[in-house]
Amino acid sequence: MSAAVDIVSLSPHVKSFIGQPHKVLIDGRWQSARDEETFEVFNPATEEVIARVANCKKADVDLAVAAARKAFDSGPWPNMSPSQRGRILWKIGDLILENLEELAQLESLDNGKPISVARAADVPLAADLFHYMAGWATKIEGHTLALSVPYTPGTEYHAYTRREPIGVVAQIIPWNFPLLMAAWKLGPVLAAGCTVVLKPAEETPLSALRLAQLCLDAGLPPGVLNVITGFGETCGAPLAAHADVNKVAFTGSTEVGKLIVKAAANDLKKVTLELGGKSPNIVLDDADLDVAIPGASSAIFFNHGQCCCAGSRLFVQEKRYDRVLEGVSDAARKIRLGPGLDPATQMGPLVSKVQFERVTGFLKSGKDEGARTVAGGGRHGNAGYFVQPTVLDGTQENMRVYQEEIFGPVVTVTPFKDVDEDLIRRANDTVYGLAAGIWSGDMRRAHRIANKLRAGTVWINCYNIFDASMPFGGYKQSGWGREMGSEVLNNYLETKSICAAI
Ligand code: NAI
Ligand code: MG
Fold first, then answer.
1. Residues carrying an active site annotation
2. Which ligand 1 atom is the nearest neighbour of the CA of 479?
């Protein structure tokens, strides 16, 4: 964080992109908000304003939804062959890779994440998602059905199902992986043949705007993708409630997920949700600690703990407890904090002042409730939203730090005696069910535990492994539906049965 750090110098493309007045994409044209209002975008490492974007509200939402409706009902998109759609998706993936460095710099600047991570994970994963979904565009298939209708004896039928795009989709995404979350949402919705209004988070709108231009460059017809920037209550809420939207796909807080459900209830539009987590990460006594300790550390500290699937409740079998507690704490102390654009940075700042205050509030609550801070525990430096990687020991099941999603670099570590029903109960004792980790040298034990965990993803001897082919999503209050894999296509398709008497 000192002035001496060797900050990546921004590419001329990034400089000119952030310097320009940012408009939003509606009906294939870049436009200002109707009322011309804008809002500021910050660099979380310095708290400086880096850009201004359009502050869209209901009038802009109406225009964007109307454009998506028009593009769905008429125009080139519904008449394109699946192969043509797939080629556009593939091209979007290619353009992301061609602009990898620029997108990584934007992401690091806007979100605060280490440039090394954006280069190695966020941007390539986003490209891969489009490449993967490009293949699905031509493989969306129904079935032929063998009917046995009891009250029409002798009649033969030709019956089959078609899978059709659900229509106009509203997608509302968060700030923790801004480009990747846009890709997770856009890849399948476009493969399915829907049209979309995407609203990135107000904290991190830049990479979605850049991606929108790449989608146009790839040949996406006007109105198929509309990207509007704005705040949750004034832009997200009217979008989620819009009568002409057929489906809402949301990633963010469980609290807002519940608001989305209420907003969609009026006209029963379909909803999928990818929400919070408080994921258990379990180290058995037979685990290879040379793998499990760095693994458990990165399970919580990756992306500054700003992961819905962060391994935030670490359970360690008694015999190994002291070593793992000390090992993870030692790893936490060694993490190099700094601005995302410093290539040596391992952990950047939290995304915003609000998140900084939320996470440091949890640290205070942990101390007040009697948890012991083994590493970290407070702010790092005195500028930017940096929080020290923190390890808490001695937490109790009723403490807020143990129960609630912190969404910051804070892990609770607790011992367990045996691999028994009580361990499973404790691991599952949360309103969430997004992910879990197990570290063991005995695959039989690990798989038996995996089967009992109420979580959408279970990692064994690894963590935070994502792939376009692997469904991701939550049990319980972690959400409805899945992202990625072929499963995500269900979010954007209706099934039609066609039955002909022949
Ligand atoms: P949030 O849920 O408020 O924001 C996510 C998105 O929802 C943003 O695009 C926001 O503009 C939009 N939004 C907010 N209110 C809305 C409304 N009433 N109607 C429609 N859209 C709305 O999350 P926030 O406030 O940024 O973070 C709060 C907490 O949420 C975090 O501390 C973390 O626990 C959790 N979170 C979970 C994420 C995940 O990946 N599951 C991602 C981000 C936050
Ligand atoms: Mg919020």
1. 274, 308
2. 41
